[in-house]
Write a structure and sequence with these properties.
The structure is a homotetramer of 478-residue chains. In chain A, helix 13 links the parallel strand 13 and strand 14 (378-380). Chain A is an alpha/beta fold. Chain A is built from 18 helices and 14 strands. At the A-D interface, helix 8, helix 9, helix 10, helix 12 and helix 15 of A face helix 8, helix 9, helix 10, helix 12 and helix 15 of D.
């Protein structure tokens, strides 16, 4: 039998799964999918039939499908919790996560999936997304262009697919829900294997620009409040075959053009760069907050971008999440947080839901110091573990992540009310809260004057830093 | 249109690729694949038409398709190079590697692939394998059951598929080529998501046993010299939901049954455990050589297994490769080497071809001390970078890896001939090459006697360890 | 002026400080030390005059010098808190810690220190130790021989010094306080630079034996309940100049002799090996729990030793502390815990007091599963930060560390009472709680039978691992 | 006996050694030091009597005290080797390194040391330094102020000490030798425990300024070509007690004042910042090259400083050394290299002499691309291992380090002559070597134009990155 071109194409797409063996029976699929699998099916019913709208029940609740700490309308430190948090569901992890990993085939077979990447399936999945958003009770969502609509055979076809799904999303959003941000997926397709903006191929640079242009347009159309650049392939595998200087220049040209286009179309969202040190590349150009800031300053883009800090990326780069948040904040660049966590002993991005209370409290300390994150917020760039295959696990994970950050906020309120940690810090620096201190801080005291002071004062007194006391106070608030 | 069950199944298999977008044109496919794509096609022609048999041309050669250091029949330290090295091609990386990664779709579209996972395709691929082996000039190959033959709808069907491909492989092997080892793939299929031998599900334990039983049979049938256990899913993601003690007991029962079955069928190959610290799991039970040795001793399996040491796994576990090789050797367990390397700054398995000369020299030092590896050898558990998409890259990578280890062997010969490094070590321990030293080493000197010696001798003289001199001598041999 | 030998000697000792500069005025020394500095001074008064006996005041207390969670006599899970915890003060960190680091001179000048290492000073310091122990309210302490008494010019003199201080300690201990463990310091003196038991010099091996013999005697004399081996120099800096096999054999001979001597003198304490992966050496022979267990099994010492697990060492070896505790427990080797923590982004031993509640809860889970640690306990192998220079910081740090573990125990009680986490785990493995499961676990089911089962049952059902739910339940108990 | 104040002081200084035990006999001291130990002794004879001037003998030499690859006057790539390398001896490691580590007392007792930190000893040591420099055959040296002259009781006294030693150094330098750079030691003394420029204490800020002022003056006086800032204590241990924003502002004020003072005194040397990620602090403000560059740009100091890149610091920050060199170079900031290496599995600064040929070749690639380093050079910020205690080890280590980099330079010459690696890179980017490429690189092509191009051209062709070939070519040059 001679295969037709279309079939060959389809089969080629399967290569990375089937190369490792036919998976004869999806072993965890709980539902009768056949009934709903027609290409034109418009599954408009309930996607999560057993799951109610998630409500706040307080810390003593044992109900896994209830909030114990997150009470959206409750006011803390002068703002409603929902306005501090601005939680967002990440479409890709929640609706396109398969449980596959470098050593394993997909494990998740949600009842609403028909096994295709058709437009109809994309639309059905979008309906599931909004049911999920409504049940979890958040107002934002985030997406890559290729998550929500299938790639076509040509760019035109891909754009048309995207338009069709976006029109539905617009309708489903209603008056309350908006994208926290949108972005273009410039890392999955093999054309981007050498990068998008930093590809060695001019044609890929152009293609990436076209894709960002479109993604920015649809983000704008949907009322998105930010637009994110994560340069998953903008980096190198080895410097032996790489002209890093030229690639960085290309990246700057690309960002300049993005800024210009944003202004041209009147998109008012914030442009965000998301640092990550490595993975998939050996070294990514947006290594961490300071590296991204240096890039923005060097190429005179500093006023046009903010940063999207991801906790798991922070720790992979050798910093605590709190450090990266504070570095972004002090550079005036804290725009958004990808809320997740990694494993302290693992050297790759695990994108776990954050459940560490101390960590959450530190994160919220930075957020409160920043006066909140708006127009940014918390996007759950976190996924179920490969082995978590129940539909309810999607809810449990989000509830747990939201509750953890909410608990962090409550702890920050306790710390602030108590005041002793802030007082400890104030006292440490009080020698600068003097007239001479003010002059030094104003840049008015030169080395000769400083030497004179040192000679006059003799050996300085240096008090204890009281780290253990600070840790004790901090822990008491948890 | 109502889809048929078979189609749904096929499409489900595609889920992890297509979930991220249709790849409209395979961008690097160099050949006219349509012609060869029929299901029954028996591509018996040349798979690598431009590539000659790889020959030794010596260090001054600039030919990328020639050996500069590996000269198979040349005798070094009393053995032919090929007998020291016993190089093996890893079927999975070389013929099933797609270039996919957690953030990217496949990038490799070899001309002989038709995009299917059919039996016919499996056989065609097997022919390519043997042409490759012959052109590269090695005598061994390694495989997982599911690499070489497609998974079926049932275990019976999978076994039948395997038998059919194995029969062809047996024919193609001829009189010279043999499996260095075979193994069962117990990590890709979702049924193994909680482990194989250590799955929380009894049914999976049984299934894994059935699969290992069959893989051991076909390895034996093909004349394989070893059988490997790599427990990619034998570990845990979190201890919160894991009964580690019970899982370890199950693993021991499983290994005992494997030993019994090996003996029953008269398979004379060595059973090998391949340690890896983590990835895909958070923590794997065969963390490193010492951990595997402890397991074998605890469960009284120490005489039945050896270890397959992989350099990239060694460094991920915080050890140098040389350390792991020596640890295995000193425990009498050095059975085989998975020759590859990782990136010193990267926290996951990159499976790169080893090109570091110093490292290769250290590896060969252990091999020479071990008197060689037979019946084990060097399996190239190494893959092309995702961005390396030319057919010739497969050859360049193997040549480079083989030359590097061959260069290591030549360096070891220089070190041994020079003798000064061995002499430096001998001198360090010479105080034990005395009568008293011999008594101590025989366990005949108790604490009271030792105290008496210490009191009599007074403060011991402690000479320099001469590390910098040792490093200078070592480097001079490179 | 011609210097006298004694002065030269004294000055030589200063070399590592003064090489970096005279520290003209101890900047934080709060007290009039001159008055107390005479060689014969017997400071018998109060060492911590402003610090009361530390009492339990409950979670709402804001008093830094009170326990909020540790209530020694309170019964939890059927045992008094103090019997679960068996807290011990580490003499070296608390009384010999100077705040020095590889880049910095000492920062701590406690009022009772006279700047000498005299015997009189050693005795005064011992008095301070017992006042501290009594005020903090613990019953155990730990020491190295050379912490508590000055090294002499000869081994005889060192032993005599030790005897004198130990006699005082015996008196000060009274009827209630005992060493949790003693040990010999085989890493500080340059004679041990190549190791003690694994030194390349026979004379050092003998000297180390003599020192361990004496340390074991005094531990026994003081009623110590354990004796620890931490092989800080038992390892290598480079394999190029090292005969690892010979060194490991020497270590085994040394341990055998230690066991024999223990029995000879009727010392009933447990011998403990303390694993650490590296630092100060590049690679230590007792890398982690599994490595130490393998060593003990290989050399047939498995019944004679247990392990002292240190959390900071665990994380440096790439494991969670919980993993190391469970590994020790499952090998029947969990003997004692060095309670501390490291920094997740730092690659050396920071020996911080543990203040992470989640971590403490996991640690206590293992302890409760182990039925407690007795005759071992929790030794605070933790030190003040270099910048913490107030006497009260010593108390704050210990209170914080004790409260954290006490809070962990209370959380474990909540988890056990709630029961849902244990139930989640039980359910995961229930397919083995069957007749067939029992047969498999008894080693009675061979591969042929397992294959038959696999063929009969078809594709196994594999449920969700519920990791996110487990994390939610765990966090709810904090 | 009542101690006198001076004695108490002296003894206090000993605290960090003696706290761990009297070292009765320096075990490795090879010479009769008593004879030379008088305070006024002017050891003007030979310090290294058995060591000749080190000469070039070529690669076949087996003489440890000869160069095999470094031939100072030989011209390579248009420059003499000595002009490419500009090697410098680090006074601190070579003459103040004691072998002490956090777990061990000093191990090195050089024959010329009398055990004091006296001015006379400082001068004798300076003579040893210049004999060493002359015998090794380099033209530069580097120092901290407090390495070369003892700290006094007051700043005035310290400065006077420094002046006296510097006057001698000036004389000994002769016409050829100069400091590659000088610096102030702002990390050892406890006054700097919270930082120098970033201390929470104003008095310390002033003291640090006075010390830098003086160090800059003496560097200028000695003809130094650079001045280095390594902020070993400029960072934090925990953010809980730290006002990072205020500290960074203070650091900027401090650097501004340094620039102003440099100009005022007509010092023409380059100011260099030396990045290091952590150690001794948990997090240092000059984490890596990009972080330092961001700081310089943020505070408008970018034209006034360059960077001193240390290879061991690079790898600790998660980058390859080559990456950091290229990052510095591309930011116009590559000023100097601290030539050393770390251990790939160790998480702290080991400051080893670099002996890896591949690494050295990559380093020299950056240096050649930079057109050399002048007025910077290669400072050997590397030390003997603790266990290397022979005087000749100092020479062997330096020879080995110099030869390795010289070998790297020779390899770079081979790579450049061969040309195929450069050609491989050129070809990768050739699509940008077009008219359209030039327009894109000039920032003249907007998103609309790029989209038009993408639509017209269709799917871009993306060739192989040829990493394995690049690695093969690179290795062939070694």
């Amino acid at each position: 039998m001679k295969m037709k071109a279309g079939e060959i194409l389809l089969l080629l797409l399967c290569l990375n799964v089937v190369s490792f063996g036919v998976i004869a029976n999806p072993p965890t699929c709980p539902a009768d999918i056949g009934k709903e699998c027609s290409d034109s099916g418009e599954w408009e019913g309930e996607f999560f039939p057993g799951i109610p709208k998630i409500n706040y029940e307080g810390p003593s609740s044992k109900n896994p499908l209830a909030f114990k700490w997150y009470n959206a309308e409750e006011e803390i430190l002068g703002k409603k919790m929902k306005d501090w948090m601005r939680f967002s569901v990440a479409f890709w992890h929640t609706f396109r996560g398969t449980g596959g990993d470098p050593f394993g085939a997909p494990t998740k077979y949600w009842p609403w999936e028909d096994g295709t990447n058709s437009l109809a399936m994309a639309k059905r999945r979008m309906r599931a997304n909004f049911e999920f958003i409504n049940k979890v009770g958040v107002d934002w969502w985030c997406f890559h262009d290729r998550d929500i609509a299938p790639d076509g055979k040509t760019l035109e076809e891909s754009n048309a697919n995207l338009d069709e799904v976006v029109a539905l999303a617009k309708k489903l959003q209603g008056s309350k829900i908006r994208p926290l941000w949108g972005t273009a997926q410039l890392f999955m397709h093999p054309r981007y294997m050498h990068g998008g903006a930093t590809s060695s191929e001019l044609g890929v640079y152009a293609y990436a620009a076209a894709q960002v242009k479109k993604a920015m347009e649809v983000t704008n159309y949907l009322g998105g409040e930010n637009y994110v650049f994560w340069g998953g392939r903008e980096g190198y595998q080895t410097l032996l075959n790489t002209d890093m200087g030229r690639e960085l220049d290309h990246m700057a040209r690309f960002f300049e053009a993005a800024v210009a286009y944003k202004k041209k179309i009147g998109f008012n969202g914030t442009l965000l760069i998301e640092p990550k040190p490595q993975e998939p590349t050996k070294h990514q150009y947006d290594w961490d907050a300071a590296t991204a800031a240096n890039f923005l300053r060097k190429y005179d883009l500093i006023g046009e971008f903010k940063l999207n800090i991801e906790c798991n990326h922070a720790t992979l780069s050798g910093h605590s999440c709190h450090h990266e948040l504070e570095t972004a904040r002090l550079n005036g660049l804290l725009g958004n947080i990808d809320a997740n966590t990694g494993d302290p002993q693992i050297g790759w991005d695990t994108d776990q839901f954050l459940t560490d209370i101390g960590e959450a409290t530190l994160v919220m300390l930075s957020v409160v110091r920043n006066g909140g994150l708006a127009p940014g917020g918390f996007n759950f760039d976190a996924k179920l573990r490969r082995e978590s295959t129940d539909v309810e696990d999607l809810f449990i994970a989000h509830i747990s992540g939201m509750d953890t950050l909410a608990r962090g906020l409550r702890n920050v309120a306790k710390l602030i009310e108590d005041g002793s940690l802030a007082e400890l810090v104030r006292k440490r620096y009080q020698s600068f809260d003097t007239e001479l201190g003010a002059q030094i801080e104003a840049g008015k005291v030169d080395f000769e004057m400083l030497e004179k002071i040192a000679l006059e004062r003799g050996e300085p007194k240096v008090p204890s830093a009281k780290q253990e006391l600070a840790e004790m106070i901090f822990q008491s608030a948890l």
